[in-house]
Design brief:
Number of domains: 3
Shape: globular
Structural class: alpha/beta
Strand order of the largest sheet: 4-3-2-1-5-6-7
Number of strands: 11
CATH class of the largest domain: Alpha Beta
Number of helices: 13
Largest sheet: 7 strands, parallel
Strand content: 5-15%
CATH topology of the largest domain: Rossmann fold
């Protein structure tokens, strides 16, 4: 039996901000308990003026209290959207309610645009899939998760299968959970090694492939997708590390997408490990091709090859994903500055060394310790962790990965 979204009226939860939201989540300027959608509708206070003296003559007052972006000129329509939200989720925080108001307005515009039935079906399916994905992963936010990619076309006797299974088992022993595509081959090996309790399966529905593997079949952590693109978003959004074993077009597609997202900064940095059985030359051959036909022509920079590691050793693969988070914890942009949250503080002398070594990726200033920004405190975004900030140039993402490696060597 496959896991499917429950009937709409029983679903709860929301989709958290994705990894490509480099500016971080916006916040209300009001300290203390954030205003609720219902409160603002009852008081007539606009989001921009929440907590300020009420001014009924202000253009901000009125039907666009929640629908700050993408409001209709028809005030009745705006009010109906807001009333819907207040009825469905009266305790929803303002920021979340505002996003949903804009989603509803966008959905209504699809009708005004006379969008085709195909476009409507695609948009609906993607929204439902992403929303259900967020609901499935929500209880496991505190646990790091590694995604295993690789061919679906190997049997249990294959060295690739056995290596994937052994890696997954060791990763779980180190406190990780494992995400796979939920199908056969390397996916089955990963779920088998991790065990059902530590496994997720993000399965694409294809007529040419069998159903979910026996480990994840029937598990509530199995999610089925109609579209590859929403499944790809889920993999990137929900993973803290990626391990790729030899595979076909699908595996190579996932690898190049990961490298592109991290090279361009459209995803936060994550460890990418290319794992192959001893004596196998799959990834060596791939790297040779990239160096001879991509790097040599200037299509990528030398630093871009440092976005991934290649190994034949399972213990080293586990160590590589663990080490990435030895000191580094996470990142976000706040007021234009890149903030790196750390698992432990670093001495000023070491930060001074890093500032000099990585001056080329700073627009100005230096790398320095900072307290949590009020926005991070208000949102509960790891305010207890030490952090450093820098005026990052927003283009040298491969070098940023090297800086993170240097942070972790300080452990």
């Amino acid at each position: 039996m496959e896991a499917r979204p429950e009937p709409e009226e029983t679903l709860a939860g929301d989709l958290s901000a994705g990894p490509t939201d480099n500016e971080g989540r916006s916040s209300s300027p009001v300290a203390g308990t954030p205003p609720r959608a219902e409160d603002l509708l009852q008081t007539g206070t606009s989001p921009e003026r929440a907590g300020a003296p009420e001014d009924r003559t202000s253009p901000a007052f009125g039907p666009q209290r929640l629908l700050r972006r993408g409001a209709f000129s028809n005030e009745k329509l705006n009010s109906l959207i807001e009333a819907c939200i207040a009825e469905a989720a009266p305790d929803a925080p303002l920021e979340k309610a505002s996003y949903v108001a804009e989603m509803l307005a966008t959905a209504l515009r699809l009708l005004r645009d006379d969008a085709s039935e195909v476009d409507l079906k695609l948009t609906l399916a993607a929204l439902k899939e992403l929303r259900y994905t967020g609901r499935v992963f929500a209880p496991y936010r505190a646990v790091r998760r590694v995604t295993i990619f690789g061919t679906a076309r190997v049997e249990e006797s294959s060295p690739v299968y056995q290596q994937a299974r052994a890696f997954a088992r060791k990763a779980v022993e180190r406190g990780w959970m494992v995400i796979t595509g939920g199908g056969p081959g390397v996916m089955a090996a990963g779920n088998e090694g991790a065990g059902a309790s530590a496994s997720f399966g993000l399965r694409i529905r294809l007529p040419s492939e069998p159903g979910a593997n026996k480990t994840i079949l029937g598990d509530p952590k199995l999610v089925n997708y109609k579209y590859f693109f929403s499944r790809k978003v889920a993999f990137v959004k929900e993973s803290h590390a990626f391990v790729l074993l030899p595979g076909g077009y699908g595996t190579l597609d996932e690898m190049f997408e990961l490298l592109t997202l991290m090279q361009t900064g459209r995803s936060d940095p994550h460890p990418i490990v290319l794992l192959e059985p001893k004596g196998d030359t799959y990834w060596d051959g791939w790297r040779e091709f990239v160096e001879q036909h991509v790097l040599s022509r200037g299509f990528i920079d030398r630093e871009d090859l440092e976005l991934m590691d290649v190994t034949e050793d399972i213990d080293e693969a586990v160590e590589l994903i663990d080490r990435f988070y030895a000191v580094y914890h996470s990142q976000r942009f706040v007021d234009g500055k890149l903030v790196l949250r750390l698992n432990r503080p670093l001495p000023p002398s070491y930060l001074a060394e890093l500032s000099e070594k990585y001056a080329s990726i700073l627009r100005e200033g230096k790398i320095e310790s900072v307290p949590p920004h009020p926005r991070e405190v208000e949102e509960g975004d790891a305010p207890e962790l030490p952090r450093i900030a820098m005026d990052f140039d927003r283009k040298s993402f491969s070098k940023l990965r090297r800086l993170i490696d240097d942070l972790n060597r300080a452990s």
